[in-house]
Design goal:
Blueprint: E1 18-23, E2 37-45, E3 51-54, E4 62-65, H1 73-78, E5 87-92, E6 113-123
Antiparallel strand pairs: 1-5, 2-3, 2-4, 2-6, 5-6
Length: 128
Amino acid sequence: MSVITHVVIGSSAPKKLQIGVKKRPAECLIKSKKGDLLHMHYTGTLEDGTEFDSSIPRGNPLTFTLGSGQVIKGWDQGLIGMCEGEQRKLVIPPELAYGAAGAPPKIPQSATLTFHVDLVKIERKDEL
């Protein structure tokens, strides 16, 4: 007699970036693109809802150049085409965040991250 065991390992974690628009302004004069300097407020949480970082209590938005690798890949991809004043929810798989290693102690290994982001301001290269 033989026993056959099937093991199915499943995860509800997304395999690709998920982008949800939570609020879009009525008027959008410019949309974010690679090379723009973005000023973003954000709150990051783990899958269980634990907050690991937020710019809001500090009162200063994070400033970075979109598409330059200054932030995780999920941000460089998920923030393209945003309007000033737009709010998005990004669900980012580990491959586009901190990978298998995570970012101890706050971000565990292979963590899927959720960010609530608010684009405060866009500065274009030719406007700097």
